[in-house]
Design a protein that fits this description.
This protein has eleven helices and 17 strands. It is α/β, with parallel strands linked by helices and 366 residues long. It has two domains: 3-172 and 352-364, 3-Layer(aba) Sandwich (Rossmann fold), CATH 3.40.50; 175-350, Glycogen Phosphorylase B (Rossmann fold), CATH 3.40.50. Strands 4-3-2-1-5-6-7-9-8 form a nine-stranded mixed β-sheet, sandwiched between helices. Helix 1 (18-33) packs across helix 11 (353-364) and helix 8 packs across helix 10. It is globular and about 65 Å long.
């Protein structure tokens, strides 16, 4: 039985991290489905946990930059001798990260050390003076990763990152945990966009398109989540007087989010990945939309959800306002009941974490 450790430096108590936590749980379940013994590390504002057991108190700590750089120093009770594989969610290279990699490699030379790269390139995600300083440090320190790391897990086209070979693994979903939307009677078309909003999500393109093509507009947009770009999006809606067409719901989870999905007709994917140089999409939101029975609007090519599928509405991959008339026309020609069945079945067969993790195990054991 393969023994796997997954380490996420993520605060599970923050609602905006719910998608990342869902990914962690999906990876754990997918590996367990492949008959692995899996442990995982995560934290909240009080403790760092190994599975659900606290292993270090961080109550009263400053959960900020200092904590981020020193995080891996708190994991000295964890021994690499207990594992065959360790997967680290990448969050920039620090001295404490290099230290734990070196210790794990020294304690167990057979262990496979993997970095799970959420997005690449990632430099555009770090803004301001502090963000730019982090990137400078990361560039200096990440040169040392090749000494310890076996593979980088990545959904993009790069064959290597940090001079380390990549394994192309896109995000998966646990469809059993996602409620399928209801087959509602269509009175008006509604789009839903869920995210932690940044410039590269490209939601401004959709709002601008709703302004340009507002005559006879039959479609509405529900925006869920928060993020650095949210205020700019609200200002854009006010500027174009789209308050009757665009609605902001804040962070929604659980039954509240399920009810919203019951009212909508299509999910909005990431529409501006090209702004940070990312060529292949692997967004969790795309997969969750499909698992809930929704067609999706995509701009970039998705690693799993190809643009020629009947439930994909492909829009240009540039900064142009999106022609929402094309989305309305796309929806008019879909059978809602058939689409719900088709998308859910596709998610179960092609997007599950069990299939993703089974592929990963075969790749690292070759």
């Amino acid at each position: 039985m393969t023994r796997v450790l997954i380490i996420y430096r993520v605060d599970k108590s923050k609602p905006e991290n719910s998608g990342v936590v869902t990914k962690l749980i999906g990876q754990v379940e997918g590996l367990q489905y492949s008959n692995c013994k899996v442990d995982y590390v995560i934290h909240d504002t009080q403790h760092i946990y190994l599975n659900n057991k606290p292993i270090h108190s961080i109550a009263g700590s400053n959960i900020g930059t200092n904590f981020q750089w020193s995080y891996f120093n708190y994991l000295n009770k964890i021994s690499a001798k207990n594992y065959d594989v360790c997967i680290f969610r990448y969050g920039l290279t620090s001295l404490s990260f290099l230290k734990i990699l070196k210790r794990f490699r020294k304690d167990n030379y057979k262990i496979r050390l993997l970095i799970d790269m959420p997005t690449y390139p990632y430099h555009m995600e770090h803004v301001g003076v502090t963000g730019k300083l982090k990137i400078v440090i990361d560039k200096l320190l990440s040169k040392n990763l090749t000494k310890y790391v076996d593979y980088v897990l990545h959904s993009g086209i790069e064959k290597s990152i940090f001079r380390i070979p990549t394994i192309r693994v896109s995000n998966g979903i646990s469809s059993a945990n996602l409620k399928v939307r209801s087959n509602k009677e269509v009175k008006e078309y509604r789009m839903i966009a869920v995210g932690k909003w940044r410039d590269w999500h490209g939601l401004d393109r959709l709002i601008k398109g709703m302004s340009v093509y507002r005559d006879g507009l039959e479609i509405r947009l529900d925006i869920v989540g928060d993020g650095l770009e949210l205020e700019n999006l609200k200002q854009l809606v006010n500027k174009h007087e789209l308050q009757d067409f665009v609605f902001f719901h804040g962070i929604c989870v659980g039954e509240k989010l399920d009810r919203l999905f019951d009212q909508v007709d299509i999910g909005v994917g990431t529409l501006g990945l090209f702004r940070k140089g990312v060529k292949v999409d692997s967004s969790l939101k795309n997969r969750e939309y499909v698992a809930r029975g929704l067609p999706v609007i995509l701009s970039s090519e998705d690693a799993d959800i190809k643009s020629d599928l009947a439930f994909v509405c492909k829009v240009p991959e540039d900064d142009s306002p999106i022609d929402v008339r094309l989305i309305e026309d796309f929806l008019k020609h879909l059978d809602v009941s058939d689409t719900i069945k088709e998308t859910r079945t596709f998610a179960e067969n092609h997007l599950s974490w069990s299939s993703k993790m089974n592929f990963l195990l075969k790749e690292i054991e070759r």
